[in-house]
Write a structure and sequence with these properties.
The protein has about 525 residues and is of the alpha/beta class. Helix content is about 30%, strand content about 15%. This is Arylsulfatase.
Length: about 525
């Protein structure tokens, strides 16, 4: 009986009569994959991203918007407003998704892109879905996990490129939504620029030869542009090049050629993201919906450092046969000005470019930059406030936890937000906690480091030894949250006796190992 009543009221809320005079906003949430903090023009990049730059110039950017530093856990937090393990991890058994919440509030819900969780999006409230269930896929030939509205979808042998095709289907879904008298929610999850690094040939040609100056020069250029754009509230020092990454001038010519081509290929994929987002936004504008559509653009983690191979001079990134991987040097450059990378809970792993655009409702000055610490867990509470939806107290077949995030609607309305709770970070042996201006972080179970994020966003001055009581208090906070949300006993009671300058992940690129001479051809 309880389930029948739940279904009755859900259908009542979704009825066309209720939605006839609906003025609530549409939602377009765009999540990209493995994008570095400085990878967009409006965040300091040399890459041409005019469409996203335009959204930023007419909207709002965030300088301290956080993800979880990992693909699947960021998706869980974005969809459920919970950290990934309390939500039920990939099963989502202790949570409801944004699609389910908005469905019950009368929204038409759609998704196009990478899922990377259990079951399928159509099992979690999405009325329309196209994309792949896998965490990564070949950009030209796909894989056997592609689905269209719950049914297998065969990737065509020609004319397929994931970034383009996902937007094709997103537009098709929106065309259908335009015939339905309801507000809509679209979740677009692009797998670019995640490996395999496979740009379109036409895009790669635009960037060939543009990265021959190397990562040292280009990182400094990005940070100079960030200062000119005023990305940060206070000056940010440059984090030094890590020990395992050589100076560009110390690389062999073969390694330089390899890394320059890798950077060109990644940049071409980012350029294509911008082109396709522009095409989607143009469609929304032509449909008359742009003014009342809240667009949020974010990444699931920082740039990826995992790749141990040198590229030989004959492979082509735009071939379906070759699967170029990432590399640590380019990741360091792309995460400027921060240190570390994807999976690490230092700023390079968890900081995302974040753009919000909503002409009808955004009350901040055009082009503003907000410096409030914000997280993916805050997105669903914000949409609930904007849509007048309600987070359910129960859901058939699941044992729900409450939301963890906090609405940032006051920021959208031109005000301020003071977080009630710290932001908790944990993936594998990497940990962090952000509480006001203070942050503790640890890599590979190393001793806690303490940073003042108002004056030291690049985490250069570890204050743990000079502030032992504060460090201890925040560490206890971290353990309390971990015990409440993840495990019954305190985590990480033992620590490795090392600091982060000594730490080297075996999956990071070791530029001293591969000294084989390869053909130095810029293909």
């Amino acid at each position: 009986m309880k389930n029948l009543l739940f279904l009755f009221f859900s259908l009542l809320l979704c009825s066309p009569l209720w939605a006839k005079e609906d003025k609530r906003p549409n939602f377009l949430i765009i999540l990209v994959d493995d994008m570095g903090f400085s990878d967009l023009g409006c965040y300091g990049s040399e890459i041409e991203t005019p469409n996203l730059d335009s959204l930023a110039a007419n909207g709002l950017r965030f300088s301290q918007f956080y993800n979880t530093a990992k693909c699947h856990s960021s998706r869980i937090s974005l969809l459920t407003s919970q950290y990934y393990l309390p939500a039920g991890n990939n099963s989502l058994k202790n949570s409801v998704t944004a699609a389910e919440v908005l469905n019950t509030a009368g929204y038409h819900t759609m998704m196009s892109g990478k899922w990377h969780l259990d079951n399928e999006p159509t099992d979690f409230g999405f009325q329309r879905y196209f994309g792949h269930l896998s965490g990564a896929t070949n950009f030209f030939s796909g894989d056997d996990t592609f689905r269209l509205n719950g049914k297998p979808w065969k990737v065509p042998s020609e004319g397929f490129y994931t970034t383009v095709t996902k937007v094709d289907f997103a537009i098709d879904f929106l065309k259908e939504a335009e015939t339905i008298d309801k507000p809509w929610y679209m979740y677009l999850a692009l797998n670019a620029p995640h490996a395999p690094i496979q740009p379109l040939n036409e895009d790669y040609e635009k960037f060939k030869g543009k990265y021959d100056a190397g990562w040292d020069v280009l990182r400094e250029q990005r940070m100079k542009k960030q200062r000119e754009l005023g990305i940060f509230k206070n000056p940010v020092k440059e984090s030094p090049r890590p020990n395992q990454i050589p100076a560009w001038d110390d690389l062999t010519p073969e390694w330089q050629s390899s890394e320059a081509r890798r950077l060109a290929a990644v940049s071409a994929m980012i350029y294509r993201i911008d082109v396709e987002v522009g095409r989607l936004v143009k469609h929304i504008e032509e449909a008359g919906d742009l003014d009342n559509t809240m667009i949020l653009f974010v990444s699931d983690n920082g740039a990826c450092p995992f790749g141990t191979s040198q590229l030989d001079g004959t492979t082509k990134p735009f071939s379906t046969k070759y699967k170029w991987r990432d590399s640590s040097g380019p990741a360091w450059m792309r995460n400027a000005p921060f240190k570390f990378y994807k999976q690490n809970q230092h700023e390079g792993g968890i900081s995302t470019p974040a753009i919000l655009h909503w002409p009808a409702g955004l009350k901040t000055a055009k082009g503003s930059i907000n410096h409030t610490p914000t997280h993916l867990i805050d997105v669903l509470p914000t949409m609930i406030d904007m849509s007048q939806a309600t987070y359910p107290s129960e859901w058939p077949g699941r044992k729900l936890n409450p939301m963890t995030g906090e609405s940032f609607l006051p920021i959208i309305e031109g005000g301020d937000v003071t977080r009630k709770n710290p932001i908790h970070f944990w993936y594998s042996t990497n940990r962090g906690l952000r509480d006001g201006k203070w942050k503790i972080a640890s890599i590979n179970d190393s001793p806690w480091e303490l940073y003042d994020m108002e004056t030291d966003r690049s985490e250069m001055n570890n204050l743990a030894k000079s502030n032992p009581e504060l460090t201890k208090r925040m560490a206890e906070q971290w353990n309390t949250i971990a015990a409440e949300n993840y495990t019954k006993k305190s985590a990480f009671t033992a620590q490795n006796d090392l600091d982060n300058t000594q730490y080297f992940n075996k999956r990071w690129t070791d530029y001293t190992k591969n000294k084989a001479k390869v053909a130095n051809k810029a293909k």
